[in-house]
Amino acid sequence: LELTLTPISLSDIAEEVVESYQTAASQKSIRLRTDCPKALPLAIGDADKLSRVLINLVHNAIKFTPQGGEISVEGRESGGGHVEVRVTDSGNGIPAHDIEKIFDKFYWSESAPVEARGAGLGLAIAKNLIELHGGMIRVESTLGQGSRFSFTVPIATP
Ligand code: ADP
Fold this sequence. Notes:
The chain is α+β, with helices and mostly antiparallel strands. Helix content is 28%, strand content 27%.
């Protein structure tokens, strides 16, 4: 797997992905919004691969958030020369004992409703792609309250 690295705007990618999921979100009366500062620095990355990561996270967020919930995609500059993107949902959350395994291949949590289970590959692929970029992906979650997935990508040096 090879990355094509160019300076990219993660706010543009976030807006495109959020736009493409508005219909799916509104079918569940979920409020889906993006919030990125205008001055978010460009990242150095593969636009296609990073939009796949974001599609995966937003897709999961919609899948695991019940009717009437909220999802936000936020970008910000994080320490250490990285841009961070966070996808926060008000969904069913992930039990503490599953948090470490959630990025493993073919893993799903018992808390995932059967009809929402996929191949269990999306997060493993996302982790792989983010690490190839020199970034990190992690999750914080409270069962029954929601989850926040965050990933970082290095800032493009001018
Ligand atoms: P799948 O295709 O099964 O969704 P993923 O690798 O994308 O595979 O996710 C693995 C598991 O992580 C899911 O089955 C679910 O148990 C859990 N998960 C992922 N995203 C969320 C989320 N936003 N809220 C709650 N659980 C999640």
